[in-house]
Amino acid sequence: MLKEELKRGIITENPILILALGLCPALAVSTSLKNGFGMGVAATFVLTCSNLIISIIKKLIPDRVRIPCFIIVIATFVTITQLVMKAYFPDLDKQLGIFVPLIVVNCIILGRAEAFASKNNIIHSLVDGIVMGLGFTVSLCILSTIREILGSNKLLGLTFLPGFKPMTLFILAPGGFFTIAFVMGIVNAVRQKNKVENA
Amino acid sequence: MNIATLVQISIGAILINNFVLTRFLGLCPFFGVSKKLSSALGMGMAVIFVMSVASMFSWIIYNYVLIPYNVTYLYTIIFILVIASLVQLVEMTLQKFSPNLYDALGIYLPLITTNCAILGVAVLNTVTEDYNFLESIVNGISSGIGFTLALVLMAGIRGKLELANIPKTLAGLPIAFIAAGLMAIAFLGFSGLNFFQSIGG
After folding, report:
1. Which residues of B touch A178 (CB under 8 A)?
2. Shortest Cα–Cα distance, A36 to chain B (Å)
3. How far apart are CA B161 and CA A24, in angstroms?
4. pLDDT in tens, chain B (201 residues)
5. Beta strand pairing status for A154-155 and A158-159?
6. Nearest C-alpha of chain B: how many angstroms from A82?
């Protein structure tokens, strides 16, 4: 079961590359692998905890005000993340900047709360939070690895290929759009090929 | 207080640090509602409106409630609550007093709560940039205009893309990303626009 769940989160229902949710943080912080990974872990933490709490209190929340209730639960965990990050990873906090508080309005988290945690039991919601968070982290790592190598010829701060002249465009805004466009294109191509083979 | 600073802030927010194309804020509505020109305009108007009201209220609450009580670390929770209730309030007011405008903007308003550009402008005004009241409002309005500009341009481009012959693997979202990337390159050109640098630093 765990293997299937993992496959669902990372491949078939990948939040960024297939569902196209949570694009803002995905493009904004994927300038280096370290930032992308940090953002992924932070969002996974918030997603898992909010899924857990929401599935516990789902019977107490009146249907009409469920969205504000979800947002408050999410915002609480985001604030916890912010404080922890400021205390233990001040450099990362500075790099991610405004995108740490903006985890609150990350559509993946609210989307999972609404579509999954408010309807399923605690264990399933917890697992769903973890696998969806992993999917988010994996796609952020893919995007940020490509952008860091092409844009600054580095990987995790170390020089990647000596003598290769980096294309600065890739760590600027346009590079983010181009990278995700081509990664999505490759994903589409693979999916279409699989469909043809299965048919 | 001087006019040059305000002009600098508004040009900065509309062109140089365009919310969508440079700062990567509000991408979900940018790709979600940019398929038709009319809906792009409606969404843009709603965003300008909510953004200016939200920057006003979040500034007042941050400076007169959060700072005096020394609870600034709660800003994320407070701002999202303020924005969610504001959107609700705006929706009810419009419904009551201006049904025509409500019909035009109605369906876009609920979507705005989760538009990260609104929370983004509130955080930028208070926590990151430390603007004063007037500067916050100007920044709110011009960020909204910048968002609308990018959204409307994108809607025009996507209208043409519908008719173009695109490789099957890139059809849909990927080609929209590429178009946005090309627009972002064009907007990078505005970063040379620093004619107020001697005044504003």
Report:
1. 177-178, 181
2. 15
3. 23
4. 578 788 888 888 888 888 888 888 888 778 877 777 877 887 888 888 888 888 888 899 888 888 888 888 888 888 888 888 888 887 887 788 877 777 766 666 777 777 788 888 888 888 877 888 888 888 889 989 999 998 898 888 888 888 888 888 888 788 888 888 888 888 888 877 665 554 443
5. antiparallel
6. 9
